[in-house]
Design a protein that fits this description.
- By secondary structure, this protein is α/β, with parallel strands linked by helices.
- 45% of the residues lie in helices and 11% in strands.
- The chain contains eleven helices and seven strands.
- Strands 1-2-3-4-5-6-7 form a seven-stranded parallel beta sheet, sandwiched between helices.
Length: 265
Amino acid sequence: MDAHNVPTACVVQRGHIYGYDNSYIIDSGKKYPGRLLPVVILDTQHPDTVDQYTRMVRQDGVRGLRLANTRPSHLDTAWLSSPNAMKIWQACVELNTPVALIIFYNQLSYVLPLLHIIAKLHPRLPIVIDHLGTPYCATLVELAWAKEAGIAEVSLPPPPDFGIEATIGRFADTPNVYFKFTEVNIENLHRSGIDSSQLIRSMADRFGANRLVWGSDIGQSLRWDFAEKASMARAACSLLTATESRLFLHDNAAHLYDAAGKAAR
């Protein structure tokens, strides 16, 4: 971080490896307060989760919650909208902490309309869709699972729409919903031979650069080191203005997660 002039970073729980044990990122946040901001994953079906998360925000410096289904083969919505899950959404409103979501590409068609309803219910709550929420969100793990299951490989829609209209286009009227662009997206764009700047420009035109967030995914992939990831992120800004680029690369995320810290203090 020092070498690349990164003042602050969110450290986001990797649920598919560590499950709901967030101790490593919480301990790291305490070791480097103000530099590493923990974003935890918790079980939305557990009755104690609201109290647990409240304690984490108020006592452990946690800055946000991440919601995720466990596997692409699990086609349910309880993790998002069960009665207990809805209590967690309300707790995040009261704590003023953003909620980020991972949505598998084969679940976009029914999870995104549900998320749109939730975003309308809580217009003051910042919601961040990891990996953009278009077909370009398909991870290498998901693609491998689909191949093993005999499911046709995901089709990556070309420019200029990139599949936005059929997926996240519905969020044009919910300014509290943000979109995180990550290495997962870059992997798919790279595989398709598409310049990432075209996608980012299209997203900025449709939603505004103030709703775009960059995430390095530094712990998820070893294909590129951080210097390469940062260079790719800057290249993705080549069609943005300087102001738009700063919003995308830093300011939007800093506002979302610093606001959470101020609310908890």
